[in-house]
Write a structure and sequence with these properties.
This protein is mostly helical. Helices cover 65% and strands 0% of the residues. It has a domain of 96 residues.
Length: 146
Amino acid sequence: MTPIALEDLVPQPTGRPWSAKPAPKGAATQISELKTLVVGYAKQETVDPLKTLGRYLGFGLAGSLMIGMGLALLLLALLRGLQQVDQLMDPTWTWVPYLAALFAGLLLVGLFMWRLMRFLNSTSSDHSSSAAVPAGSTTSTPGGRR
């Protein structure tokens, strides 16, 4: 029988044989690494999503301002176009282009408000349908189980 060497009883590292063993770390080094890890995680989960949200809000605000300015210019073009109609040049009919432009603007505002309310109602109904069933309710499910 061959004698068993002490090195055979000590478990060998499972890492790559050419890599150096990591130096033992003290408590201060581990605490420093933990702090770095926690700060990095906090940035990843809070700051980065806020930056993305800010970018979306910025582009949304810029887009809405551009659409608003474009619609205002279209209403102005409608007013100026109606003022050039020969039948409306009579001094008794000069108010009609203003009324038509006002009506078109109010129609656009109403259309946007209707779409906004429809969107808000659809999102609120999605949230309320996924709410938990209260404890005292008697809703039935297939099979009679709750």
